[in-house]
């Protein structure tokens, strides 16, 4: 590790040793930059790393709300505005009991580089709350969203910070949040993305993260003269990202074998087809049920309670699409032992550092989430553009723009990796390409 990087990481660990997710994300990015930092002292001279690892602003606030029985609850709300060097802060809102400042700082930090890679003018941020929308009525979720936005609205805006959805924040929540923002501001701003099509949303936005990850993996496979045709694919999660990953895999001729939720995993050796996926869409989006019901509906599937998909069956490709650190070193070894030659991340930092070392030692294709799942925020950027010019592009137009962005990210990551001595290393390439653009803007703008 470069001495400059080592010093910055030592300072970070001393100041906030409890923020394990953020420290993991920071070390993963900074440790990739040794060749860049050694080649040009301008970064150390301008203290770029010290500035880059500290958010420009962190907002923490209380969110009181009433349930249907009139009982008052209080949750914590957050917005981490990490870096605005290349554009307004951009990143999702997550509503989940696990949310804390460390997780949001890690997500916001990742978002800086992810947004840089899209080529669109967007900075990085992240926010959310430890509120759990599961099991809540629509009225309770609306009460919470209204209270959350009554504080957040004063810190965001179309040229300041444009949040989107994330885990626990789908179309319903975005609608409630936008309605409250509009009432507070008396302005119809392009301030949230992931909106409904009737009121400023973009076609392909719900599909974008899953489609984009599949497009990226398709580009990686092409470097080996392969395609998705006939490939056995493991997908984790059963929310938005996983659903549309499976949809695009089916369209490309692959055989998706798995989906999961926090309770367990289904493995369908016959493959998940369009009819089975339609059942999952209804189960998860309308009935808010558990993935175990899939195995009751389709006898070709087996349900594994408390298990993740990795290693449960043979597969060519793994596409983790659930949450951070869901693949550990043993999971990675199991994947490779079962024939996996490609891992493309649909979630943010789903592989532990030890798992990534296993991938690299085995020399399989591996794409970090900041590159492979950037399609979601890229299409959010396209939604912002459509809102700004008061136009809507067709489904085909948006999909083609998304596909081209993912091709560009793949190309830029490969070229950066090769330029700095690690050909084929998508993690190093993505980190370097994202860093250089943001750092150049920071230097140009002074301190």
Assign a percent range to the helix content.
Answer: 40-55%
Output the number of helix runs: 18
For the largest beta-sheet, the strand count, sense and barrel status come to:
5 strands, mixed
Radius of gyration, CA atoms, in whole angstroms = 21 Å
Q: How many strand segments?
A: 13
CATH superfamily of the domain at 208-372: NAD(P)-binding Rossmann-like Domain
> Structural class, please?
alpha/beta
Strand content: 15-25%
Q: What spatial form do the alpha-carbon principal axes imply?
A: globular
Walk me through the structure.
Among the domains are: about 55-185, Rossmann fold; about 210-370, NAD(P)-binding Rossmann-like Domain (Rossmann fold, 3-Layer(aba) Sandwich), CATH 3.40.50. The strands form three sheets. Strands 1-2-4-3-5 form a five-stranded mixed beta sheet, with helices on both faces. A five-stranded parallel beta sheet has the order 7-6-11-12-13, with helices on both faces. Strands 8-9-10 form a three-stranded antiparallel beta sheet. It is an alpha/beta fold and about 450 residues long. The chain is about 50% helix and about 15% strand. The chain is built from 18 helices and 13 strands. The protein is globular.
In short:
The protein is α/β, with parallel strands linked by helices. The protein is built from 18 helices and 13 strands.
